[in-house]
């Protein structure tokens, strides 16, 4: 359905993104509906280019960062909203028109939280991380398959990919293990594929090293104990504009490193960490925290004393999460103040 009002009166526009079909819902300054339209992918850019500058809301989903860049090129203000924040505004049954209307309503709320858009450079770094993560997962699966198949032939390899790398050449050369010619060929192919994945992971990590070396923010983050190559580049790729976060706790909460709340009647109740946000990035920070906890006994400074005391009281897992939380806050401070980490800062 189209409204007779001129499209020049559109002040807020909600767009339900998809692959080929896009639903639009626009309102004027008085929140009166002036536009409902369904467009194909080829016509969307042309239509939005003809609109006067307005506020456009879209859900954070696959392809949303691309559309943010396209719409901003035409002078519009674009805001991405997490799908879970749009859902409460959907009336009755779910369909494209209802979703577009809900997005339009949500983007106008003064207290709404928005998802920061990623630049092309950030997406490049994130793509490297995603491809590397998949290659590592495939390599682990390959090693587990090799160990499982050899177990059926009575040959046991201990857990750990390093043992697979070490033992397979010896097993292939050992003529006394009674492996058939057919299985030896299969095992050799599996091993060569795992070696190829090793090389693939190394190439991707070398690309990340080059990016990290050329990026000042990555170099600042590397000065934090427990933050390495992967954590630093992943943080830069995920955050982009650090000014989106008011303080370090907001960044930690965005990463899901703060306690969940279930408070009522004035009685605060804190649970485990919320585990919201980017699971991959949170995992990297927690693994980095575990490394710091493991070597804390070697140092006597204030930070490591706190880590050792917390480890004694709560255990290594909770301590690792606490260190990850603190590192997230320190990262916010370093990126905001454009400085490097010093032990005297905490």
How many β-strands, per DSSP? 7
Strand content: 5-15%
Overall geometry: globular
Mean pLDDT: 90
Strand order of the biggest β-sheet:
3-2-1-4-5
Q: Span between N and C termini? A: 60 Å
As an assembly, this protein is single chain
Radius of gyration: 26 Å
Question: Number of domains in the coordinates?
Answer: 3
Per DSSP, the total helix count is 13
Descriptors for this entry?
five-stranded mixed β-sheet; single chain; disordered N terminus; globular; 346 residues; 13 helices; Nucleotidyltransferase, domain 5; 3 domains; alpha/beta
Describe the structure in your own words.
It is globular and about 85 Å long. By secondary structure, the chain is an alpha/beta fold. The strands form 2 sheets. It has a 5-stranded mixed sheet. Strands 6-7 form a two-stranded antiparallel sheet. Helix content is 55%, strand content 11%. The model is unreliable at 1-5 (pLDDT under 50). Strand 6 and strand 7 (270-273) form a beta hairpin. It has 3 domains: 7-107, Nucleotidyltransferase, domain 5; 120-214; 216-345, no CATH class. It has 13 helices and 7 strands. It has helices at 41-50, 64-73, 83-86, 96-107, 120-151, 161-173, 181-214, 216-221, 229-239, 248-254, 279-295, 302-314, 316-337; strands at 12-16, 21-27, 33-40, 55-59, 77-81, 259-261, 270-273.
């Amino acid at each position: 359905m189209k409204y007779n009002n001129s499209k020049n009166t559109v002040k807020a526009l909600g767009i339900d993104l998809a692959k080929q079909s896009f639903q639009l819902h626009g309102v004027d300054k008085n929140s009166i509906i002036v536009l409902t339209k369904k467009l194909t992918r080829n016509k969307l850019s042309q239509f939005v280019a003809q609109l006067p500058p307005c506020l456009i809301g879209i859900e954070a989903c696959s392809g949303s960062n691309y559309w943010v860049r396209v719409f901003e090129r035409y002078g519009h203000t674009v805001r991405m909203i997490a799908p879970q924040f749009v859902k409460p505004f959907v009336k009755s049954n779910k369909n494209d028109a209802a979703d577009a209307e809900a997005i339009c309503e949500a983007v106008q709320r003064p207290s709404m939280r928005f998802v920061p858009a990623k630049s092309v450079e950030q997406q490049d770094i994130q793509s490297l991380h995603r491809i590397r993560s998949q290659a590592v997962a495939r390599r682990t699966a390959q090693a587990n398959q090799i160990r499982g198949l050899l177990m059926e032939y009575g040959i046991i390899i201990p857990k750990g990919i390093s043992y697979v790398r070490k033992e397979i050449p010896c097993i292939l050369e050992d003529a006394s293990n009674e492996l058939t010619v057919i299985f030896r060929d299969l095992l050799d192919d599996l091993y060569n594929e795992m070696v190829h994945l090793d090389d693939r992971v190394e190439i991707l990590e070398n690309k990340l090293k080059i990016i990290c070396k050329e990026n000042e923010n990555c170099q600042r983050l590397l000065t934090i104990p427990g933050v390495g190559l992967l954590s630093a580049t992943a943080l830069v790729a995920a955050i982009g504009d650090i000014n989106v976060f008011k303080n370090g706790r907001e960044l930690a909460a965005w990463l899901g490193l703060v306690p969940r709340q279930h408070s009522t009647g004035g009685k605060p109740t804190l649970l485990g960490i919320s585990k919201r946000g980017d699971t991959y990035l949170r995992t990297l920070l927690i693994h980095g925290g575990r490394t710091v906890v493991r070597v804390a006994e070697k140092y006597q400074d204030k930070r490591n004393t706190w880590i050792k005391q917390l480890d004694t009281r709560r255990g290594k897992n909770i301590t690792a999460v606490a260190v990850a939380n603190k590192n997230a806050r320190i990262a916010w401070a370093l990126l905001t103040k454009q400085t490097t980490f010093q032990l005297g800062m905490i």
